[in-house]
Please model this.
Amino acid sequence: MKLPRLLQASNSKGVLAEKQALSYLQEQGLRLICQNYYCRFGEIDLIMIDQDTVVFIEVRYRKNCDFGGPFASINKSKQRKIITTAKHYLRTLENEPFCRFDAIAIDSKSTTPAWIQNAFQE
Model:
């Protein structure tokens, strides 16, 4: 179970992975809107803007890839939770923008995050 950001150590692997992902995505030109958006449906690690598109980003860290790796851990159930949480977030906006769901994976062996745009859809 992922603990709310306030309960995680600031140097935990998950927090460090999110910081690395955020930095990488900002280098790619995305702008941060919100980090760790929580609601009753779930949590979205990063919400960013890529030109005119709102991007909901799931960050996954894995120490090793013995059980399918970071992307394999974003199963259909996790995708549904992210989509439902994103819909909740979108209801707070005046206009519904274009949006997409990305995933970024960080593992202990790689120096560059792996980024999949449009990793899944509603």
About this structure: The mean pLDDT is 86.
